[in-house]
Amino acid sequence: MWLFVRYIVDQFKTPGDTSLAATAAVTRKLEQTGLTGAANVTAQTGVSFDTLAARWALANFVSDLDTVPGFTPPPELKYTSWRFRTTYLSLHNQLPSKFPKVFPLVPTVSAGDAVSVGGTLRAGSGAYHRALQAPSAAGFTLLFGTPEPFVHLPGIAPLPSNVQPRLEIIRIQ
Questions:
Q1: What is the pLDDT of residues 71-95, one digit of tens each?
Q2: Cα-based angle 30, 32, 33 (whole degrees, multiple of 5)
Q3: Pick from 166, 148, 144: nearest CA to 157
Q4: What is the dihedral of CA 112, 113, 114, 120, to 10 degrees?
Q5: Is 66's pLDDT higher than 80?
Q6: pLDDT at 142 over 90
Q7: DSSP summary character for residue 80
Q8: Local confidence band at 152 (pLDDT 50, 70, 90 cut-offs)
Q9: Is 76 helix (H, G, I), strand (E, B) or coil?
Q10: Label partner for 32 (CA 20 to 30 A): which of 40, 77, 136, 144?
């Protein structure tokens, strides 16, 4: 939860203001209301909770992904107070036994036309996958389902109606 609040603060405080007062102004708006949860976040930011949650999940991976030439994340996918890759690399270098990875979010990878990702997605989390697509390669379709028989695709059934998946795609060249 802290990381989501940190993202909201970075997105909605006065641009360029790194003071504690700027941070407090955002968190006070969230605290000094009778609203709670998604309704509160939406009311205080003016952005739907679904949009913020999707941006936040993507920002966790791309916020300071400046190691890719020509890729600069848009402002809504950036933290202004953290550089996760720099921080985790430093922790890894200092304590590799406690921080074995240089960055904790390691996406699975496949060719764009061979994406097959399975597993359990816990509430409030995200899964990261890189679909590698050659320039000018043919497009492809993504299908979401559960591992049950399906009329058109053996082994895949539609998701239950109470499941509302979110998919965010960002192009990293």
A1: 888 999 999 998 889 999 999 999 9
A2: 80
A3: 148
A4: 60
A5: no
A6: no
A7: S
A8: low
A9: helix
A10: 77
Is the entire prediction scored with pTM above 0.70?
yes
In sequence order, the β-bridge partners of residue 157 are 146
**Going by C-beta distance under 8 Å and a sequence separation of 6 or more, which residues neighbour residue 109?**
129, 130, 132
Q: Are 49 and 36 in contact (CB under 8 A)?
A: no
Q: What is the pLDDT of residues 27-57, one digit of tens each?
A: 999 999 999 999 999 999 999 998 999 899 9
- Both tokens assigned to 83: 């550089």
Helix (H) or strand (E) holding 49: helix 49-62
> Of how many residues is the chain composed?
173
Q: Which tokens belong to 100?
A: 């074995």
Give me the residue spans of the domains in the chain. Answer: 2-132
